[in-house]
C-alpha cells in the first residue's frame, strides 16, 4: 500500500510527518512524504525556527512523482498541518492528480486548526480553507472536538450534539468522520472518548485519560486510522486499532515523563498494542 502524506515536518520531536510517517511504515505502508513546512520543533514550544514552504514546491514534487509514472499506484492521500492556504490549494490539486490516476484512491484530511487548550494555532485563512474547500473534498476527516465545533458552528456538550455535528460535517462531503479528544457530559472525569462514523454506523471508544499533554498524538492517530480504514473498510475496526495504539504510545510517554511522544521507542504499540479498546455502537 502506498500513501502520499502531505503535512508539516519537524527536525526535533514528533508532530506532522515526523509523527505520522513512521507508524505507517511500521504497519508496512510505503509512505511518500511531502513536507508543507520544515521547522526545528513544534509550535507548542512557543518559539521555533525554519520555514513554511509554498504551493509551488508541492506542485514541483508532485510533477516529479508523476514523471515516475507511479501516481496510479497511490492508494490514498493524507493531509495535516498546511502552513498556508496557498499550500492548501496545492494539496487539493495533488489529491485531484492522484484521483485522476487512480479513481479508487481516497483522501483523508486531518483538519489541523487548533485545540481546546491553545485555541486556533494556524495562520489566518486556514480555518476557512479547511471548512470551505479541504473538508468538502475529503473522503475521511479526523477533527478533534474543538475543530469539529469550529467547522460546524455546533457547540458539543452531549453525545447527541456530537452526532449532530458529525452529520452536519458529513453533509458537506466526507462520508467517514473520526472525532478525537471527545469530552461530553456523558464522559467520566477520568476518561477520554473518540467517535467514528461511516455508512455502516457510529461507534465510540473510551480510554482512561492520562496525565500528559503532548503534541502529535492527533497526527499519529489520523495516520493509523487511515491505514486501518484503507485495509479493513470499517470505521469501527480502524477506531479500535488506532485508539489502542495511541493509548499505548501515550502511556509509555507518560511513564517516561517525556515532553515528546515516544514514536520510536514505543513503536511496538503500533503493531501489537499492550491494551485493546473495543468501540461500542452508539
Ligand atoms: N491526555 C490523554 N489521555 C489519553 N489519551 C489521550 C490524551 N491526549 C490525547 N489522547 C489520545 O490521542 C488522541 C488524539 O489526540 P488529540 O489531542 O485529540 O489530537 P490533536 O493533537 O489533533 O488535538 C485522542 O483522541 C486520545 O485518544
Ligand atoms: C508544525 C506542527 N504540525 C502539526 C501540529 C499538530 O499537532 P497535533 O497532532 O497535536 O494536532 C502542530 C501542533 O503544535 C505543529 O506545531
Ligand atoms: Mg490534530
| Separation, N- and C-terminal Cα atoms | 31 Å
Number of strands: 12
Number of domains: 1
| Shape, per Cα inertia axes | globular
Annotated CATH topology: UDP-N-acetylmuramoyl-L-alanine:D-glutamate ligase
Low-confidence stretches: none
Commentary on this structure:
The protein is α/β, with parallel strands linked by helices and 282 residues long. It contains nine helices and twelve strands. A ten-stranded mixed β-sheet has the order 3-2-1-4-5-8-9-10-11-12, with helices on both faces. The chain has a two-stranded antiparallel ribbon with strand order 6-7. The model has no long low-confidence stretch (mean pLDDT 97). Pyridoxal-5'-phosphate binds at residues 8, 10, 15-16, 37, 39, 42-44, 81, 112, 121, 215-219. Its cofactor is Mg(2+).
List the topology elements.
Elements: E1 2-10, H1 17-26, E2 30-39, E3 50-52, H2 55-67, E4 76-79, H3 85-101, E5 106-109, E6 114-115, E7 119-120, H4 126-137, E8 140-141, H5 145-152, H6 159-171, E9 176-182, E10 191-198, E11 201-208, H7 217-232, H8 235-256, H9 268-271, E12 280-281
Parallel strand pairs: 1-2, 1-4, 4-5, 5-8, 8-9
Antiparallel strand pairs: 2-3, 6-7, 9-10, 10-11, 11-12
Bound molecules: adenosine-5'-diphosphate (ADP), pyridoxal-5'-phosphate and magnesium ion (MG).
